[in-house]
Amino acid sequence: MGKRPAATGGKSGGARKKWKRGGSRGPASAVPVNLIGSKGFLFTCDAHRQHESVREAYNLLEEYVDLCYPPVVLEEEANTEKSKSISELLKEEVIAAGSKKAKRFHKVDCQATGFVLILCSDPAINPVKVALKMCSDMKESGEQKTRFLARVAPLQVGGTCAGEDVHGDLVNTLRPLLAGVLDKEAPPTSFAVVYKRRHHDMSMRDSIVKLAEAVDSKHKCDLKTPNVAILLSVIKGTTFLSVVPQYTELQSLNFRRLVPQPQTHPPSASTSGKEVPTE
Description:
With 279 residues, the chain is α+β, with helices and mostly antiparallel strands. Helix content is 33%, strand content 19%. The chain contains eight helices and nine strands. The protein has helices at residues 13-22, 50-68, 75-82, 86-104, 127-141, 166-174, 205-213, 255-258, and strands at 40-45, 105-108, 115-120, 149-155, 157-160, 190-198, 220-221, 228-235, 238-245. The strands form two sheets. The chain has a five-stranded mixed β-sheet, with helices on one face. Strands 2-3-1-4 form a four-stranded antiparallel β-sheet. Helix 7 links the parallel strand 6 and strand 7. Helix 2 (50-68) packs across helix 5 and helix 6 packs parallel to helix 7.
């Protein structure tokens, strides 16, 4: 009796292998989110502590958004709350905190290890204002508020590299962000275009030149220690622009440079106070 032919349907081995190659569950085939017009924060983190970094980023954002944008309580609401019990107030606060986090922020998979991308849903939030407050507090207090996050890049406006006139689109997006910082009315200062890319191969050199030319001529370009940074971040074909003051003063928004970590290595013999044997 001859061998039975292999089944073509069902859950055969060949079908499973084909599904693995063309399936949609792997990270390489995840559907990208449309980030055009969005804003948020891109955190650099420890690659092997991605999950903890996401939780830490949410906690940090909630703290500093509340500091930058304190909730407004109407007088009528305040009088109503006085008549409520403590347990009722605590229960409402927990519910409000959960809904507030879901409303304000949501994480997006940027498909890059070592990065956490969180977008803002609230149009009133200015990512640059929040990021500067974070870094200023850490510098002034000397207190490191992050364990796994290393750096933050505020993302003010999202765009795309797929347009016919990428350079023109970027310049038009940048101009409103220059107001009061790098325009004619702003006092003279120094600036630089800081370019970072993730999963993007197309050259952006011409765009960088066009962005620098959009700045008023009274401001000088300083590539080493700029007072203001024009951040151009590209993530898989999506562009993000931000204009960040105090960039060099705040250590390029690097948390670990703002508050240096104590050295854990034991002191060497030459620095431990012990005599070094000589021949």
